[in-house]
Design goal:
547 residues, mainly alpha, Amino acid/polyamine transporter I, two-stranded antiparallel sheet, two-stranded antiparallel ribbon, 4 strands, globular
């Protein structure tokens, strides 16, 4: 007699087979684990701390207290629109696969490359940020080991990059050797984020001698961007400077496509993965707002926070914490945040490697046979190594900084992540909108008729943020400004544009001949009872465009 769990497993494999794929990956993840990986990648203990200064310096407290909840709304609408597609097509390829199915191979090709680029940016920025926080933590604890003195700050950028490489290699080892352990780690991560945030908020309520007023938190404006002579009331402030501060929210609440990328490893994927996407956004937005408010209420020493000589970065969360907390409380908050960021980095590598595996399975990357290989344990080992290698490469410019030790590359990498991912998110949403009632909704989870306004809203919103986060963050990055310094250039639009040009030419020259959006590796009547080990997943010839 077939048990309910076995029936679900059979249906998962049958649905995957109907999409043309064999059950190559190990399907051991629960619905909670699926939610947990997106919640972990969003990580309010990462983005809320690492990009806090972006909002503080470009808008001030209002960019945080009002900007966070207001920007969370369109992000949730994007997520809900994606959830409907996850429910219909729960595959590791996720976004590019949906685009190819709904619009044809060329749509899948460009979507896949945007998604791939964005995920590399996410891995690079998250792991680099965790290395930065770990450097501060080790310095605060007085660590001096193997000739590396974290207390002097003399070689801060080199030490941070060393930590970055060590951390990302450890993430790679974890993703390759302990894949069955990953779901448990992400489950623990949810607990760590919820309890950790509660502890941080309690510390920020109890430990400081004083707190800011509600008036300060909800009405105060800052402009430390260098634009408009520091004005916080001009039209330029409202329509240029303040929107730059929204990067805090837009960057933090991203990476939720992970629930789609691990859907081939999730039980009851149509419903579980769809809910994993929107629930991770909703709960992260809610919890993140509370922790951001707690940090902002603790920002009583604004002179120190706005001082570029404070050693932590102007307007940063660390500046606020250091100026408002005692040594033990500061180190406790720093440790909680750093560990949360480590959870986040490991999950980012998982998500990016699954997408890389799937895109290679459908012959979207150079050397696809290599990256589409899975081990006998059902692990895309080579894809993990590729993600790690490219993340190290894209972060290499962070070895250089200005006189204050600010790494030029970090916020550009953040922008690459946001631009790449959200463009990838919105392409299949646009194609689903274009299909209208011809799109057959999944009975497991769907938007009903709400897609009629949610889809176009998501499309317009992503267009707006793509423009905003391609803009210079400082006058030093404006080519026609007399103070222009190439080191501060926001190279996100250059990188995205260059990749778009290269893959566009590649498509016209050769890719259109072999990339069909999907390379089937199974027939429906082979769906159950087969195993797979250490062979390329995408060897068989293509059988159609998947449209």
């Amino acid at each position: 007699m077939t048990t309910p769990s076995q029936h679900i497993a059979d249906e998962d494999e049958r649905q995957l087979a109907e999409m043309g794929y064999k059950q190559d990956l190990n399907r051991t993840w629960s619905a909670f684990s699926n939610f947990a990986i997106s919640f972990t990648i969003i990580s309010v203990l990462a983005g809320c701390f690492t990009t806090y200064g972006q909002a503080w310096n470009n808008g001030g407290p209002i960019a945080i207290s009002w900007g966070w909840p207001l920007i969370s709304i369109p992000i949730l609408i994007v997520g809900l629109s994606m959830s409907e597609l996850v429910a219909k097509y729960p595959t590791a390829g996720g976004i590019y696969w949906w685009a190819a199915r709904l619009g044809g191979p060329v749509w899948g090709w460009f979507t896949g490359w945007f998604n791939f680029l964005g995920l590399i940016g996410v891995v690079a920025s998250v792991v680099y940020a965790s290395a930065t926080f770990m450097n501060f933590l080790l310095g605060s604890l007085g660590v001096d080991v193997f000739g590396v003195n974290f207390t002097d700050g003399e070689h801060f950028l080199k030490e941070t990059f060393l930590l970055f490489v060590i951390i990302i290699l450890l993430h790679a080892i974890l993703n390759i050797t302990r894949t069955n352990f990953l779901a448990l780690i992400n489950n623990v991560s949810v607990f760590w984020h919820v309890v950790g945030v509660a502890v941080i908020i309690a510390i920020l309520v109890i430990a400081p001698d004083d707190h800011q007023s509600f008036d300060f938190v909800f009405t105060e404006r800052f402009n430390n961007s260098g634009f408009s002579d520091g004005s916080n009331s001009s039209g330029f402030f409202w329509f240029y400077v303040l929107p730059l501060g929204f990067l805090l929210t837009q960057y933090t609440i991203t990476g939720f496509d992970a629930s789609a990328h691990v859907s081939e490893e999730t039980h009851g994927a149509s419903k579980s993965a769809a809910q994993g996407v929107w629930r991770s956004i909703f709960y992260s937005a809610l919890i993140g707002w509370f922790v951001l408010l707690a940090i902002t209420f603790a920002a009583t020493n604004t002179d120190f926070v706005n001082d570029p000589e404070n050693g932590f970065g102007i307007g940063s969360a660390l500046s606020i914490l250091n100026s408002s907390l005692g040594e033990t409380a500061f180190e406790t908050v720093l440790a909680i945040s750093t560990i949360g960021q480590l959870f986040c980095g490991a999950a980012c590598v998982t998500s990016a490697s699954r997408m890389t595996f799937a895109f290679s399975r459908d012959r979207g990357l150079p050397g696809s046979k290599i990256w589409a290989t899975v081990s006998s344990k059902g692990v895309p080992r080579n894809a993990v190594l590729l993600v790690v290698a490219l993340s190290i490469l894209v972060t290499a410019p962070a070895l250089k900084g200005d006189e204050a030790g600010f790494p030029f590359a970090f916020f550009a990498v953040v922008s690459i992540a946001v631009i790449g991912l959200y463009i990838a998110y919105v392409i299949p949403i646009y194609l689903r909108w274009r299909m209208g009632d011809r799109f057959e909704q999944s009975p497991a989870w769907n938007l009903g008729s709400k897609w009629r306004w949610m889809n176009p809203f998501a499309f317009i919103w992503v267009g707006i943020i793509t423009v905003i986060f391609s803009l210079p963050f400082t006058p030093l990055a404006v080519p026609w400004d007399e103070s222009f310094d190439l080191r501060y250039l926001n190279y996100a639009p250059v990188t995205v544009g260059l990749v778009l040009l290269i893959v566009g030419v590649w498509w016209k020259v050769s890719a259109h001949k072999y990339f069909t959006g999907q390379t089937r590796n199974i027939d429906i009547d082979q769906a159950l009872g087969e195993s797979h080990s250490d062979t390329p997943a995408g060897d068989p010839p293509p059988s159609g465009a998947g449209a």
